[in-house]
């Protein structure tokens, strides 16, 4: 069912006046220096600053008066999915709304200043879904930048909304779409995207911000003969897929590096990716590069400076694609809370690190068994995963392997919930997962990759936990079938590799 989304702001005025198309008066161009150190009242990129800390120095709203906030204006949007983070410059709010519409609004009352509507191809929905879901826009000099659903990158006049330039970046008929958005780094417009079907759209690209000319392109999966190309085993180059579909990366203006997150490999299980041969790639990094990795790129050339793979050979669609947060902190992890501590880094020493901010993973874990000690809840997609909970990496290449796992004494309370059959309890259903059960499955004669079946003394050996999903009945049934299949495949793969 179509829904009308409302963009609500609690600012300074309670009067809603009729919208009028005009232009931004007394516009001050956004400079490189302003992006490095934005004015307190401006929000010039999706996280406000290049380190992605999203901290505002404004103090007008504080602990004493936050409870008094109220809605002062609201403005309707068209039907569709809205995931965009608006920008604010000189009291003007720039926002991308559903349907590939860019608007400049008076941030004090929501009045429309100008609007740009992109005319999309009639067959767009045949190739990509959720058209217009770009998560960010960018601003630099007197231009506002938008990654359109039809594969074009647009430069709009920040004063009037007039189209100044457009450049085709990818072909939407390949299933590639602008799911992320642009960020301006040293005069270059850097973008990621979601790719599907082939490697053709799996890349990060940079364009000249003032002209739209392409400057470089970095493919997020290496081809045979390139460094890391053998990490995909025998997979043909056109089938090597791992996309930078999430929010843009972070930029370190001192080291002159961009840190970008890459998502999981596709298809989602190594059995499907490698033709049923789970031994086509190793079980440790590097495997299926640069999936589930942080890559450090030189923004001037697009060359790879270094990478770190958080989860090699992923089987769980456990994306590591969202923005990296740059910070400086003392390196003194609790030994009881981490899997491994880098012995090369003195304890208590201050270091620059780039932890991953991944809202897709519920960072709660409990012990499942001595052999399978962790499970992770993926809150957005309502699935269960066995794997790594949280990864943080050292920014410098020689000291960048810090693996952190968070633990909890209770089951997760949000996102995916596990329950016993016929019970309202949220505790996990671990029946049928005994050691003997896994041993029997490991010794079965079923061909590799085949799902375990009933009989032959293996009854109840593959029962997955029941999943309570907030989705529709049809979607719930679909996710239950997928979770059951993933559970059975994972248990079979685990026992084969451990016994």
General description of the model:
By secondary structure, this protein is mainly beta. It contains four helices and 30 strands. The strands form nine sheets. It has a five-stranded antiparallel beta sheet, with no helix packed on it. The radius of gyration is 24 Å and the shape is globular.
What amount of the residues lies in strands? Answer: 25-35%
Strand order of the largest sheet: 21-23-27-28-22
Terminal Cα span:
50 Å
Structural class: mainly beta
Q: What is the overall shape?
A: globular
Compute the CA-based radius of gyration. Answer: 24 Å
Count the helices. How many? 4
**DSSP helix fraction:** under 10%
**How many beta-strand segments?**
30
Residue-averaged pLDDT: 74
Major sheet attributes: 5 strands, antiparallel
Unreliable stretches (pLDDT < 50, length at least 5) are 1-20, 360-471, 487-499
Explain briefly what this protein structure is:
The protein is mainly beta and 499 residues long.
Structural topology:
Blueprint: E1 4-9, H1 32-36, E2 73-79, E3 87-89, E4 92-97, E5 101-106, E6 112-117, E7 138-140, E8 143-147, E9 152-157, E10 163-168, E11 182-185, E12 188-191, E13 203-208, E14 214-219, E15 241-242, E16 250-252, E17 257-261, E18 265-266, H2 270-273, E19 293-297, E20 304-309, E21 327-331, E22 338-340, E23 349-355, E24 361-362, E25 376-378, E26 383-385, E27 390-394, E28 402-404, E29 417-419, H3 435-442, E30 466-468, H4 473-498
Antiparallel strand pairs: 1-2, 3-4, 4-5, 5-6, 7-8, 8-9, 9-10, 11-12, 12-13, 13-14, 15-18, 16-17, 17-19, 19-20, 21-23, 22-28, 23-27, 24-25, 25-26, 27-28, 29-30
Helix pairs in contact: 3-4
């Amino acid at each position: 069912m179509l829904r009308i989304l409302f963009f609500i702001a609690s600012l300074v005025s309670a009067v809603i006046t009729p919208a009028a198309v005009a232009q931004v008066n007394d516009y001050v161009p956004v400079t490189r220096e302003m992006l490095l150190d934005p004015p307190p009242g401006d929000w010039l990129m999706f996280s406000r600053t290049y380190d992605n800390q999203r901290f505002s120095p404004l103090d007008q709203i504080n602990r004493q008066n936050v409870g008094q906030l109220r809605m002062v204006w609201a403005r309707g949007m068209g039907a569709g999915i809205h995931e965009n983070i608006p920008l604010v410059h000189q009291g003007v709010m720039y926002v991308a709304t559903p349907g590939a519409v860019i608007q400049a609004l008076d941030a004090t009352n929501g009045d429309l200043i100008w609007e740009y509507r992109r005319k999309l191809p009639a067959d767009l929905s045949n190739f990509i879904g959720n058209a217009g879901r770009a998560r960010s826009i960018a601003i630099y000099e007197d231009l506002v930048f938008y990654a359109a659903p039809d594969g074009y990158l647009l430069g709009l006049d920040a004063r009037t909304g007039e189209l100044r330039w457009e450049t085709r970046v990818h072909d939407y008929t390949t299933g590639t779409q602008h799911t992320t958005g642009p960020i301006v780094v040293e005069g270059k417009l850097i973008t990621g995207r979601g790719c599907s079907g082939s490697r053709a759209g799996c890349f990060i690209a940079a364009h000249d911000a003032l002209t739209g000319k392409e400057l470089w392109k970095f493919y997020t999966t290496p081809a045979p003969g390139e460094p890391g190309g053998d990490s995909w085993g025998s997979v043909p180059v056109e089938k090597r897929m791992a996309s930078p579909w999430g929010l843009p990366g972070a930029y370190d203006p001192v080291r002159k590096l961009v840190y970008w997150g890459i998502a999981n490999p596709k298809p989602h299980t190594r059995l499907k990716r490698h033709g049923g041969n789970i031994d086509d790639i190793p079980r440790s990094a590097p495997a299926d590069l640069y999936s589930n990795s942080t890559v450090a790129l030189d923004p001037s050339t697009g060359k790879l400076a270094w990478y770190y793979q958080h989860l090699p050979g992923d089987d769980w669609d456990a994306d590591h694609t969202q923005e990296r947060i740059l910070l400086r902190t003392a390196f003194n992890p609790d030994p009881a809370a981490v899997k491994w501590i880098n012995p090369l880094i003195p304890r208590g020493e201050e270091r620059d690190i780039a932890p991953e901010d991944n809202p897709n993973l519920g960072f709660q874990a409990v012990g499942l068994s001595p052999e399978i000690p962790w499970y992770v809840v993926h809150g957005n997609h309502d699935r269960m995963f066995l794997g790594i909970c949280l990864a943080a990496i050292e920014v410098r290449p020689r000291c960048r392997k810090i693996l952190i796992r968070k633990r909890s004494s209770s089951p997760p309370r949000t996102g995916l919930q596990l329950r016993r059959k016929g019970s309202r309890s949220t505790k996990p259903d671990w029946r049928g997962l005994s050691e003997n059960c896994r041993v029997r499955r490991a010794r079965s004669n079923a061909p590799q990759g085949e799902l375990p079946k009933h009989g032959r003394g293996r009854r109840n050996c593959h029962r997955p936990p029941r999943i309570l999903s907030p989705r529709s009945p049809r979607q719930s049934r679909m996710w239950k079938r997928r979770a059951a299949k993933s559970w059975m495949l994972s248990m079979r793969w685990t026992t084969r590799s451990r016994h």
